[in-house]
Design brief:
Layout: H1 3-11, E1 12-15, E2 22-25, E3 29-33, H2 34-46, E4 56-60, H3 71-86, E5 89-91, H4 98-105, E6 112-115, E7 129-132, H5 135-142, E8 147-150, E9 153-160, H6 169-180, E10 188-193, H7 202-210, E11 219-221, H8 226-234, E12 254-259, E13 266-268, E14 276-278, E15 289-292, H9 300-310, E16 320-323, H10 328-336, H11 339-345, E17 349-350, E18 370-373, E19 389-392, H12 395-404, E20 463-471, H13 478-481, H14 486-489, H15 495-498, H16 510-516, E21 520-524, H17 536-543, E22 546-551, H18 556-564, E23 568-572, E24 586-590, E25 600-604, E26 609-613, H19 618-626, H20 629-635
Parallel strand pairs: 3-4, 3-6, 4-5, 6-7, 9-10, 9-12, 10-11, 15-16, 15-18, 16-17, 18-19, 20-21, 21-22, 22-23
Antiparallel strand pairs: 1-2, 2-8, 13-14, 20-24, 23-26, 24-25, 25-26
Helix pairs in contact: 2-3, 2-5, 6-7, 9-11, 9-12, 19-20
Bound molecules: alpha-methylisocitric acid and iron/sulfur cluster.
Length: 636
């Protein structure tokens, strides 16, 4: 067996392990973060389960820590009190980014982890089967219910040789993105194997599994070996280690071979993580901003290497350079070895240990500026500046760009800094986490005026007549559907208010058109809903009356979120029928005739019909008929 199938087998509560068939998994750990967490905890509260039933659940505050006005601090207080009451550990704002903190403090080989953030697979770097999901799916897992997914195919990523020169872990995943594209991982777990694995540290592995999210993969996973053991030992958690790997004769559904020795420094170009080219080919391009950090590249080793490159130099005067460490542990280590002082004296701006500019929480580039970021997503407008051009690179490349004011040829960079040795013991920040009350029954949940109670959606009508509100192209991201940024993210606990911003960067009239009809439908091409796990990209359209999405294909987490909120995820039987539909048309379907994973007829208002299909399980169909997962759970 391969490693993925071993962990799934050990956690299987039901279903059929044939790729594509539904499986129910026992979930050991969950994580939530503030931007998706307020909804998740409101939903958890609505389930009437007094204590979380997982072995460990952590509620992190890392996405929006700006506290501009009362909304955001009210959210933080709500999350602190819900964690305290319901039995979760609380990580206060400023402690660090959820994925970095979870890797350092809680994740362990062989567990299942579900998190309300699409980069939860970061913990795959330590050998956990870690998956991103919508907040409601995580709330259900916290309530002790199984997590249901389609059984993934397992793709072996065979790493041969080792990295050379200025190439680093980020370049490995950028190379894989170039090979497979942003939809190349859909329906798959990417399982790393081969001699190259042992050459990579746990944080390097985590950089790679983190960005597996950009491939659309269910998750990515590395084996647990001596490198994993040394990492856990340094964290004072050697007892959490177990050896885990695929059997020597394991079989896989697909394979990609990667020769690490041939990978040069790479960059993803605007506006998709898979538009990858060599850094050398960008030489000469001036850069206005460099942002180093995010859950992809904010480990101690990443930032220490940046400091080593900048040591004794100054960042370029026309390149605004900022660093956000992944955790207070990382920051403490940088302070301890003098790297922090090196960074500050080189001209770097130090930001809080949080997501920061990655989700547009400040740090936006200048108008039509070029920004180089060590992050994982460069979708148009995500930085907060609509016409900015964002490139994604490794910290090593970003540091060189900061020094030189733009891209230069790596052959001129000299000798790369060495990877710092793993300290025998790293400083613990575990005392900063708030442990839950032993008995939460008397803990009061503190809310605020922006925390709006959940809306109850009606069940699915027998005949659905809906207008096409918008017709979209390929690869529409959840950032297109429900933009992030400081102002809009502050509305995550208030669905009626956040709904006013649906598709605002794509089509300013979307909301008024959706409101003007009773039922709406969204039409798109391939990979609709890629990117973030934010369920607001389903919930807010549902609030506006969207009842179905008809696309050529859908991204995994968003499709699950549509089901959770009672929106029908439909696909064209014949993708060419996409051309026969125009915005403003009315589509009618008899929903009582829909059966799980089978085609059905849709009537267009021009008198013609098309065939659409779905890949829903019986249970998912029942959830949609009930008007969403919360209604379904309460009915059961
Ligand atoms: C992201 O990177 O897009 C986010 C912000 O972390 C999201 C979660 C969210 O929208 O709150 C994600 O990746 O799931
Ligand atoms: Fe935070 Fe960015 Fe990572 Fe999302 S991708 S969790 S916004 S650092």
């Amino acid at each position: 067996m391969n490693l993925t199938r071993k962990i799934i087998t050990a956690h299987l509560l039901g279903g059929d392990m044939t790729p594509g068939k539904s499986i129910d998994l026992r979930i050991d750990q969950t994580l939530t973060q503030d931007a998706t967490g307020t909804m998740a905890w409101l939903q958890y509260e609505a389930m009437d389960v007094p204590r979380v039933k997982t072995e460990l659940s952590v509620s992190y505050v890392d996405h929006n820590t700006l506290q501009m006005g009362f909304r955001n601090p009210d959210d933080h207080r709500f999350l602190r009190t819900t964690a305290h009451k319901f039995g979760a550990i609380f990580s206060p704002p400023g402690t660090g980014i959820c994925h970095q903190l979870h890797l350092e403090n809680f994740a362990r080989p062989g567990i299942t982890l579900v998190g309300s953030d699409s980069h939860t697979p970061t913990a795959g770097g330590i050998g956990a089967l870690a998956m991103g999901a919508g907040g409601l799916s995580v709330a259900l897992a916290m309530a002790g219910k199984p997590y249901t997914i389609p059984m993934p195919e397992v793709m072996r990523i065979y790493l041969d040789n080792n990295l050379t020169g200025w190439a680093s872990a980020k370049d490995i995943i950028l190379h894989i993105l170039k090979e497979l594209s942003v939809k190349g991982g859909v329906g798959k777990v990417l399982e790393y194997d081969g001699p190259g694995v042992a050459t990579l540290s746990v944080p390097e592995r985590a950089t790679i599994t983190n960005m597996g999210a950009e491939l659309g993969a269910t998750t990515s996973i590395f084996p647990s070996d001596d490198v994993t053991r040394a990492f856990l030992k340094a964290q004072g958690r050697e007892q959490d280690w177990q050896e885990l790997h695929a059997d020597p004769n394991a079989t896989y559904d697909a394979e990609l071979r990667v020769d690490l020795a041939t990978i040069p420094p790479l960059a993803a170009q605007p506006h998709m993580p898979d538009v990858v080219t060599s850094v050398a080919s960008l030489a000469g391009l001036q850069v206005d901003q460099v942002a180093i950090g995010s859950c992809t590249n904010s480990s101690y080793a990443d930032l220490r290497q940046v400091a080593d490159i900048l040591s004794g130099h100054q960042t370029h005067s026309t390149t605004d350079t900022c660093v956000s460490p992944g955790s207070k542990q990382v920051l403490d280590m940088l302070a301890d070895d003098g790297s922090l002082s090196t960074l500050l004296l080189s001209g770097v701006r130090l930001l809080e240990c949080s997501c920061g500019p990655c989700i547009g929480m400040g740090g936006s580039p200048v108008s039509s500026g070029v920004s180089v970021r060590t992050f994982n997503r460069n979708f148009e407008g995500r930085s907060g500046t609509k016409d900015a051009k964002v490139y994604l690179t490794s910290p090593l490349t970003a540091a060189q760009v900061a020094l030189n004011g733009g891209f230069t040829d790596p052959s001129t960079w000299g000798t790369p800094p060495s990877l710092p040795a793993l300290p025998k013991r790293v400083p613990s920040i575990r005392h900063l986490f708030l442990m839950p009350a032993e008995d939460g029954s008397s803990v009061e949940i503190l809310r605020g005026p922006n925390i709006v109670p959940l809306e109850k959606f009606p069940s699915l009508d027998a005949t659905l007549s809906a207008s096409v509100i918008i017709k979209l192209e390929d690869n529409i991201t959840t950032d297109h559907i429900m933009p992030a940024g400081a102002a809009i993210t502050a509305l995550r606990s208030n669905v009626p208010a956040i709904a006013e911003h649906v598709f605002e960067r794509v089509d300013a009239d979307f909301v008024s058109r959706a409101r003007s009809v009773k039922n709406g439908i969204i039409v798109a091409r391939e990979n609709y809903g890629q990117g973030s796990s934010r369920e607001h990209a389903a919930l807010a359209p549902r609030h506006l009356g969207i009842r179905a999405v008809l696309a050529c294909s859908l991204a995994r987490i968003h499709r699950a979120n549509l089901v959770n909120f009672g929106i029908l995820p439909l696909t064209f039987v014949n993708p060419a029928d996409y051309d026969s539909i125009a915005a403003g048309m009315s589509l009618t379907l008899d929903t009582t005739a829909i059966t799980a994973s089978a085609p059905t007829t849709v009537a267009l208002d021009n008198g013609s019909t098309i065939m659409v299909t779905n890949d829903l399980s019986e249970q998912e169909l029942a959830i949609i008929r009930a008007g969403g997962l919360l209604n379904f759970v309460k009915q059961a």
